[in-house]
Design brief:
- The chain is α/β, with parallel strands linked by helices and 447 residues long.
- The chain folds into three domains: 3-44; 67-272, Rossmann fold (3-Layer(aba) Sandwich), CATH 3.40.50; 276-445, Ribosomal Protein S5, domain 2.
- Helices cover 27% and strands 29% of the residues.
- It has helices spanning 57-62, 73-79, 99-110, 125-135, 150-158, 185-202, 223-227, 274-279, 325-338, 364-376, 402-411, 438-445; strands spanning 3-12, 18-19, 35-44, 67-68, 83-84, 88-93, 116-120, 142-146, 164-168, 205-210, 230-237, 240-250, 258-264, 267-270, 288-295, 298-310, 318-321, 346-352, 384-386, 389-390, 396-397, 416-419, 432-434.
- Helix 6 (185-202) links the parallel strand 9 and strand 10 (205-210).
Length: 447
């Protein structure tokens, strides 16, 4: 006879750590008032024995790997060639970034050929329809629903009526089997597992929207990222600029792809030449350096701006937009030690134009030269792009995809590039000016 065992305990809503008793502070992540009751109904079926379904590898290789096109080439590239049937995909981003807009456009694109269900747990059907009207999207095979029940969504997935189901968002739905409120660790985990099992059983692709915390990381348990097949994030500046769709996990393709969009009144529009768009309004002055960076597998030229002023306080201020502040402090300390620049009494501000967030070390040399240019009130000689990682000894280190960076700079009409030394067989001696350390770079090109 089947019986139900209820296991009760406590779990941290911030990190997912489990406790047998309640306490005011989580000893794992340090958050206060984040520990809540975890009441999870676990059903067991006595001594019933279930048989395991198996198949040979050859049979598995014969199955079709056909993907669904989204109607947006950049999105298909990030997914690895399209949306895989039966896959569970998670997309996150800050509020107002355009997640719902992107997914509604994607749903309309897929619905040109396949049946799609768009489920909203945050908005009414009228609100979703109003957005569709504003974006100018329509499709007979696109259906809308508004619910907060993951059990109802599971039933719709298992029906096999839809090839793609979009759930917006996982933090707003709940299953009746769990007693906690929507958005809790237990609800998010159980709802995600419920939808995942239904997607695999019916071979229906599912896209789930996830919220982010104030630090910018995905809200909810880390287990959520392990459950799904693909993890995407939509990044950029809420006030405008470019939006980047990145992939951090992909069981069906590469994690080095990035799609770049621009928000317009008609929705997100793919940017075919982001370098040209980012440099269109650039003013050549001191403190302005063009960085050749890589987003996914695509080279992009972006302007790095620096401003250096005497500090009016006892402690100099460091501010940065689009870069890691700790990395800036490290580079400033290196410049103080390895060059003749005196920056300990200067306020330093660094900005990446266009709202982009640069994380690769190849931006180091461009940041250093921008600060030195602003400090010395001298422009960079001629029209050049800069890239290279900088070590604490001031040396310029090798970075990947040098050839792609140089080709992008040539295509936009730059005179030369400043970067690390590369092997002679791959070097472009007439275009690349290799530098060994920061001091020689500043003396050669900012003197």
């Amino acid at each position: 006879m089947a019986k139900t065992n209820k296991t009760s305990g406590y779990v941290c809503s911030a990190c997912g750590a489990s406790y047998s008793t309640w306490s005011g502070r989580c000893s794992v992540c340090g958050e206060w008032n984040s520990i809540e009751l975890n009441l999870n109904a676990i059903k067991t079926h006595g001594h019933n024995q279930a048989s395991l379904s198996v198949q040979s590898l050859e049979e598995g290789l014969k199955t079709s790997d056909q993907r669904m096109p989204s109607g947006m080439s950049g999105v298909d590239q990030v997914f690895g060639g399209g949306i895989v049937n039966g896959s569970v995909n998670l997309i996150s981003g800050e509020p107002g970034m355009g997640k719902s807009t992107l997914l509604l456009q994607l749903a309309a694109g897929v619905a040109q050929h396949e049946s799609v269900l768009y489920v909203s747990g945050e908005e009414s059907l009228n609100q979703v329809a109003m957005r569709a009207r504003r974006l100018g999207v329509s499709a007979d095979k696109l259906k809308l629903a508004a619910t907060n029940s993951s059990d109802e969504i599971k039933t719709a997935i298992l029906s096999g009526e839809y090839k793609l189901v979009i759930v917006d968002s996982i933090q707003t739905i709940r299953t009746e089997e769990v007693g906690s409120s929507a958005g809790s660790i237990t609800q998010v985990t159980n709802s995600a597992r419920l939808l995942t099992n239904a997607a695999k059983a019916s071979d229906t692709a599912v896209i789930i929207v996830g919220h982010v915390t104030k630090e910018g990381s995905l809200a909810g348990p880390r287990l959520l990222e392990h459950i799904v097949d693909v993890v995407l994030s939509l990044e950029g500046d809420n006030s405008g600029g470019l939006k980047l769709l990145r992939v951090s996990k992909n069981r069906f393709g590469s994690v080095s792809e990035t799609a770049i969009f621009e928000m317009k009144s008609s929705g997100l529009s793919q940017v075919d030449n982001p370098s040209k768009a980012l440099l269109a309004e650039r003013k050549v002055t001191d403190g302005s350096i063009v960085l050749a960076t890589i987003e996914g597998s695509r080279p992009i030229l972006v302007e790095v701006q620096a401003l250096v002023n005497p500090t009016g306080y006892g402690y100099p201020k460091r501010a940065v937009s689009g870069l890691d502040l700790s990395r800036l402090n490290l580079l400033v300390a290196m410049m103080e030690k390895r060059t003749s620049l005196k920056l300990n009494d200067k306020d330093i501000y660094v900005n990446i134009v266009g709202g982009l967030k640069i994380t690769e070390p190849a931006a180091d040399l461009a940041v250093v030269m921008a600060i030195a240019s602003a400090s010395r009130n001298k422009k960079l000689k001629d029209n050049a792009v800069v890239f290279g990682e900088v070590g604490l000894s001031g040396e310029i280190r090798h970075v990947p995809f040098i050839e792609r960076r140089l080709d992008e700079a040539k295509a936009l009409g730059f005179a030369y590039a400043i970067g690390p030394k590369i092997p002679a067989k791959t070097a472009q001696p007439k275009f690349l000016n290799p530098v060994a350390d920061v001091k020689s770079a500043l003396n050669s090109f900012l003197s």
